Amino acid sequence: MAPTVVSDVTPAAMGISETEDKTIKKGNDADEEVIRVETEAKTGVSFPIKLSDGKMLSSTGARKKTIMGLGIKIYGFGMYVDNSRMKEVLKGKMGDKPPTSPTNELYQLVIDSDVAITVKMVIVYGSLTMKMVKKNYDEGLGSSIKKLNEGRKSEELSSKVMGNASDDIKLPSGSEIEISRLPGYGELISSLESELLCRAYMHLYLGDDPFDKEAKEKFGLSMLSLF
């Protein structure tokens, strides 16, 4: 498995209250396409229901940080899954009768699987730099790696996810970052093959101390719906 980071800057769509149709323009011509989107409630960022590679949106959430006692919204995120493959994995491990609600076993199966998952992040905080993002992820991944690696740290591994990205990259509101457990698409910033790192990254969103607990719960319910 190769975690992949891609970076692109696009305007964030704001103000849509629920899943609905949205008209967008593709390319430089006047061609328009109506797509389905879902809006993350805390940030107002819209995420397409389906990516071009077929992965489906399973959950949306928001990453917040407390700065000087204030809860600051950093980015909205959407989690996309290869549902057909994930269905095979979950039913193969849990049978045809799923639990009535998401369980730790379910989340651990997702974390440990090799099914393609993409996390799409849209920046909403206006003064972010790549250096700040890298520092945040280095700390979070370091903690997850320690939990999943029998208490052993690996600072070298945790720092490699965005290690090739320049610290000077500015990330204005609307900037997009994608991190995939398998190769994604777009401008490739870094690629690193590591099963432990893949599991640690998923643990940030689905582990015992997730970035957004509501998003984790919604993701679990989405996985149960595959049954």
Automatic annotation (TrEMBL):
<dbReference type="InterPro" id="IPR036298">
    <property type="entry name" value="Chalcone_isomerase_sf"/>
</dbReference>
<dbReference type="InterPro" id="IPR044228">
    <property type="entry name" value="FAP1"/>
</dbReference>
<dbReference type="GO" id="GO:0005504">
    <property type="term" value="F:fatty acid binding"/>
</dbReference>
<comment type="similarity">
    <text>Belongs to the chalcone isomerase family.</text>
</comment>
<dbReference type="InterPro" id="IPR016089">
    <property type="entry name" value="Chalcone_isomerase_bundle_sf"/>
</dbReference>
<dbReference type="InterPro" id="IPR016088">
    <property type="entry name" value="Chalcone_isomerase_3-sand"/>
</dbReference>
<protein>
    <recommendedName>
        <fullName>Chalcone isomerase</fullName>
    </recommendedName>
</protein>
<dbReference type="GO" id="GO:0016872">
    <property type="term" value="F:intramolecular lyase activity"/>
</dbReference>
<dbReference type="GO" id="GO:0006631">
    <property type="term" value="P:fatty acid metabolic process"/>
</dbReference>
<dbReference type="GO" id="GO:0009570">
    <property type="term" value="C:chloroplast stroma"/>
</dbReference>
